[in-house]
Amino acid sequence: EKINCGATPLHRASFSGAVATMRLLLEWKEPCCDILAKDTSFGDNMTPLHKAVAGGRYLAVQLLIDALKSRSTDDGQSLLKKNLTQVDSVGRTPLRLAESFIDRQEEEQKSVKRWDELAGGE
Fold first, then answer.
1. First to last CA, the chain
2. pLDDT digits over 25-47, tens only?
3. Can you give the pLDDT at residue 9?
4. What gap in Å lies between CA 98 and CA 109, rounded to an integer?
5. What distance in Å separates the CA atoms of residue 53 and residue 60, rounded to the nearest whole number?
6. Average pLDDT over the chain, rounded to an integer
7. pLDDT by residue (tens digit) across 97-119?
């Protein structure tokens, strides 16, 4: 009996930025490597692209985008377009997830600047 933990090796490799492993997995294509699979192991329902974004792995993001560009669904729809509209468990697309990290980074920079000013730094 096959037990499915909800995450694929591609999810794990994408989050950790293991690009060489991702390349090998992506060579297998469907059905062995479902590039649109949603990870249910943490309840986040993220695709491998979401995971790469969440891990801050820009090389993994680029590899996935290139792989998605080169593939299409049975009805001819671009997998890239389909994946960019997929949402995680809180309704974020991969792009919105990336934007949330930028927003958070800007807030952290402002906070560091305030602390530097309070401590007499520049």
1. 62
2. 999 866 667 899 999 988 899 99
3. 93
4. 17
5. 8
6. 87
7. 999 888 777 777 888 888 888 88
**Tokens representing 104?**
């958070």
Helices in the chain by DSSP H: which ranges?
9-16, 19-28, 48-54, 58-69, 79-84, 94-118
Cα 5 to the center of its chain, rounded Å? 18
Asked if 49 contacts 94 with a C-beta cutoff of 8 angstroms, the reply is yes
Q: How many CB atoms lie within 10 A of CB 66?
A: 11
Quote the CA–CA distance of 71 and 66 in Å, as a whole number: 9
**What is the Cα–Cα distance from 103 to 81, expressed in whole angstroms?**
24
| Strand partners of residue 46 | 39
Q: Which residues, 6 or more positions from 98, have their beta carbon under 8 angstroms from its beta carbon?
A: 53
Name the residue with tokens 């009996």. Answer: 1
Say if CB 41 and CB 29 are below 8 A apart.
Answer: no
Establish whether the linkage from the previous residue to 31 is cis, with ω within 30° of 0.
yes
Which among 68, 58, 39 is positioned nearest to 98, based on CA atoms?
58
114, amino acid identity: R
